[in-house]
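Practice problem: predict the structure.
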Amino acid sequence: MFIIVQRCTGFYKVDKSVKACWHVLSLTAALFLGAMAHAQTAPADSSVPLLWDLTHRVEKPDTSGLRLIRFITEDDYPPFDFTLPDGTLTGFNVDLARAICEELQVACTVQARRWDTLIPSLDENRGDAIIASMQINAETRKHVAFTSPYYLTPGRFVTLRSTTLGAAIPEVLAGHTIGVVGKSAHSAFLETFFAKSTIKAFESPQALRAALRNGEIETLFGDANALSFWLNGTDAAGCCAFKDGAFLDPNFFGEGVGIAVRSGNGNLRRVLDYALAKLAERGVYADLYLKYFPIGAY
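Answer:
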């Protein structure tokens, strides 16, 4: 359904053969998953996603032969991975990689590469793991193996704070204008479930957000993680807020984002899964998430 190797908040191009069957069932499932995602959050802060069962004791895999993990990422995708003016590589993905190595007490390197070279670099053994907001789906699984998701990529509505719009459901938004980035998973979702609304496509996330801020559209629909970052920034200037909960239909928004390793490298995948679960258990994951997403995406 999606093009190969998607990033989490990139606005994915979708195949035109996306079918409109099971509309009611799929939308119900999306709403249910959104509710479940909200219910399964860390007790300390309801905006932090909890993707690990903290009641389950995770056995530590054998790490005796592990001396170094070479993470690769990119550097132009804030807040997930980006370069500071002094050249320092940082971001949610980068900090998480370093926390993993600290948890495992192994040496760690994090190098930035172009997005289109990440999987080839892994194949050529120029890195051990990709931590670059890569979507878990059928296409990416053809090339790499993934850990469990370390965050999800829900879609959410955003409105002006002064809005009089009711609930963000098809019946209420029928006849209203919804902005979205064109040829994206989010536009496909709207075309499937919000067909009675006026869907206005924009060329970029920046243009979409500016249109809402300036009152040209009544609401927008897009990637919740990117929108969370925007809402907390100076560009939004406090204009807007999330409207209702998150949509997590995997048919449109994927199964989440995982750390990718070479297919067949099951031991490293298990080691990384163990580290992620321990970071969640100790509250380190929650601290990192809230550092970059104080306005939670869920």
